[in-house]
Design brief:
Distance between the termini of chain B: 34 Å
Number of helices of chain B: 9
Order of helices and strands of chain B: EEEHEEHEHHHEHEHEEHH
Strand content of chain A: under 5%
Number of domains of chain B: 1
Shape of chain A: flat
Radius of gyration of chain A: 32 Å
Helix content of chain B: 25-40%
Number of domains of chain A: 2
Structural class of chain B: alpha/beta
Largest sheet of chain A: none
CATH superfamily of chain B: P-loop containing nucleotide triphosphate hydrolases
Distance between the termini of chain A: 45 Å
CATH class of chain B: Alpha Beta
CATH architecture of chain B: 3-Layer(aba) Sandwich
CATH superfamily of the largest domain in chain A: MetI-like
Largest interface: A-B, 21 and 28 residues
Shape of chain B: globular
Oligomer: heterodimer
Number of helices of chain A: 11
Number of strands of chain B: 10
Order of helices and strands of chain A: HHHHHHHHHHH
CATH class of the largest domain in chain A: Mainly Alpha
């Protein structure tokens, strides 16, 4: 068997002989996208018109003064520019498509293709800018509706400021519940996950117990668990909790309730993580003589935890927010405190203030974990 | 007395009869090469010797001690019998140094300093001293496999099992790994290799063992197996290997 020398005709085909005549497909030399460009331009102009109309309504409905007026005008000018730019790109798309057609007709199809690609780029800008302008203008429209009623009812910074001390104090309780619960959840959920993965018939009863636990507590709304555990344990004077002071009792019962709920979620996250570690890793560890426990401790769990950090963080953020649920059993954490203020001022702004507290914690927290993940990846993986 | 003895070893995966009565005695300092088509049971046999797979019949005896069946301390057995895998299986979350010292520290209860010192010496021998603090994923396949061999050696096993250790490597990286095995053979390490590297098997093996469908078809010194196989099936297998340009 030898290869065909260059220039000679090849051997009678066996593998290359396919039924039906071979078909050569030519690349299209040029396709006009003028119609699409026109459509995008019309869409851009409509977008900009609607957006400006929304902004004009927004402006007319608000009675503003001082700093608020300046901020408002700033936003309006910015949005006006964004909408205008979208419309401008629409026109650009059309002119580029036209010039692409001219080039193609003039015997320069490849130059035409380049210009057509430019036209498509402009269309994407129409989409990006136009949608953004429209959505933000709609939000502004809502804020301005009914002469800025939403602003007065929910976003009054005066009320927020007056309540900030009480809110800050109460938010400290949320953080305390969160911190204690999170630590307990991480340990408890790992235990549940490991129990669920225990092999052998002997462990079937505990395995079943773990399965029932996760099913039940993932299936019941957290708010009901909190209600039942905190009020129920309190009323039943359950030993251990009964000797505590009222404040302590409600704190620890809330921690217990949230641990039960989040333990069920997080144990499933752990389980997914543990199962995602390829068995060959465990085999390698066992082959060195490490015991089952040592293999979990030094090889499987560390890798699983690294892998599930994003979902763990997700659940941590959710837990941090759900600490506000304890307000339904009369616990004066930040939402409870905000409700008291709301009743006092007859204004919802303190509740919005409470929401801001959560944001101040969760957003930097998320970014920080992202940073940790990225660093770990760079350290352990090749390339970069 | 042989160092390692397999007597009528049977292995089933469900209804699959993978090893059908394997008898093999391995003397100290011997290098046994297992050859045979994929799926013939080479890897399974090695995994059984290391007790990573339980056997369903027969027995395995190491230095006069029964090491198969119920009640055997597999963790103790694995200190005597090391294994290196086709896919390296280094721990990606640990540095090269930590990979090597994990076993000695946790299982042999060596002090950290002691384990590190020995790891450093071993790394220097294979020319990877400067990689001690790197993570495995930043190493080439050949480097990873060399580290995996050193990780097994750090446990100071009496028998080393090598499961197709060059099959996952780019061709140009194979020799750096085989050189280490060659050196180990010279130094008298008792080894069982499952391999597709026929030339290498011919060079280092004390005996070559041809497996097919879970049965040992033929055992013999390399020259006899490769030049004058007694069994027709061995000859057929080797012909196919030659046709593939691997011998």
């Amino acid at each position: 068997m030898t290869n065909t020398p260059v220039g000679e005709s090849p051997a009678t085909p066996v593998l290359l002989a396919t039924p039906g005549a071979p078909r050569r497909r030519a690349l299209p030399s040029f396709q006009s996208n003028l119609l699409t460009a026109v459509a995008f331009a019309i869409a851009a102009v409509i977008c900009a018109t609607v957006e400006w109309w929304l902004l004009i309504y927004f402006d007319a409905s608000l009675v503003l003064s001082g700093a608020e007026l300046i901020v408002c005008r700033g936003v309006e000018i910015f949005l006006g520019l964004v909408g205008g730019t979208a419309a401008w790109y629409g026109i650009l798309a059309v002119t580029r498509a036209l010039s692409a057609n001219r080039l193609a007709a003039g015997g320069a199809p490849s130059a035409g293709r380049v210009r057509a690609e430019d036209a498509r780029d402009a269309m994407w800008f129409v989409v990006g800018l136009g949608l953004t302008a429209l959505i933000v203008a709609f939000i502004a429209f809502l804020l301005g509706a009914n002469h800025g009623a939403l602003r007065t009812v929910m976003f009054d910074f005066g009320y927020m400021w007056r309540g900030h001390n009480a809110l800050l104090h109460a938010f400290w309780l949320n953080l305390k519940i969160f911190a204690v619960t999170q630590v307990l959840v991480l340990a408890w959920a790992l235990l549940v996950a490991v129990v669920r993965l225990l092999p052998g018939r002997a462990c079937a009863p505990v395995r079943t117990l773990a399965i029932v636990y996760t099913d039940v507590f993932r299936g019941v709304p957290a708010i009901i668990v909190i209600y039942l555990v905190v009020l129920g344990f309190g009323l039943a004077r359950v030993p251990g909790f009964d000797s505590m002071s009222k404040d302590n009792q409600i704190f620890w019962l809330a921690v217990l309730a949230l641990t039960l709920v989040y333990g069920a979620y997080v144990s499933e996250v752990y389980r997914a993580g543990l199962e995602s570690i390829h068995w060959s890793q465990a085999a390698a560890a066992r082959s060195l003589g490490l015991s089952q426990w040592q293999t979990l401790r030094h090889v499987v769990v560390p890798q699983a935890v690294r892998r599930i950090l994003p979902p763990l963080l997700n659940d941590a953020v959710a837990l941090q927010k759900d600490t506000a649920l304890t307000s339904i059993v009369g616990y004066v954490e930040v939402l409870g405190a905000a409700q008291l203020l709301k009743n006092k001022y007859f204004n919802l702004s303190p509740v919005f203030g409470a929401a801001l507290f959560f944001l101040v914690i969760t957003i930097p927290f998320t970014r920080f974990v992202d940073f940790l993940l990225k660093r770990d990846k760079q350290r352990t993986q090749g390339g970069s | 007395m042989s160092l390692l003895e397999l007597r009528g070893v049977q292995k089933y995966f469900g209804a699959d009869h993978v090893l059908k009565g394997i008898d093999l005695a391995i003397e100290e300092h011997e290098v046994i090469c297992l050859i045979g088509p994929s799926g013939c049971g080479k890897s399974t046999l090695l995994r059984c010797v290391n007790a990573l797979e339980p056997i369903q019949g027969g027995e395995i005896v190491l230095d006069g001690e029964l090491v198969s069946g119920r009640g055997v301390d597999v963790n103790a057995l694995r200190q005597e019998v090391g294994i290196v895998f086709q896919s390296f299986n280094l721990f990606p979350h640990k540095t090269v140094m930590q990979n090597i010292t994990l076993g000695p520290i946790k299982v042999l209860k060596e002090s950290k300093a002691e384990a590190k010192e020995r790891a450093r010496i071993l790394l220097a021998r294979i020319g990877l001293s400067e990689k001690a603090n790197e993570y495995p994923d930043r190493l080439s396949g050949g480097q990873q496999q060399r580290v995996a061999i050193v990780r097994a050696l750090a446990m100071q096993p009496r028998v080393l099992l090598l499961d197709e250790i060059t099959s996952a490597l780019d061709p140009e990286l194979v020799s750096e790994v085989l050189n280490i095995v060659r050196q180990l053979a010279v130094e008298g390490m008792t080894m069982i290799l499952a391999t597709h590297e026929m030339n290498f098997a011919r060079e280092v093996a004390s005996r070559v063992c041809f497996l097919e469908s879970g049965v040992i078809v033929e055992v013999g010194v390399p020259d006899q197996i490769f030049t004058a196989p007694k069994q027709a099936r061995t000859a057929e297998f080797l012909e196919r290997i030659i046709a593939a340009g691997r011998l």
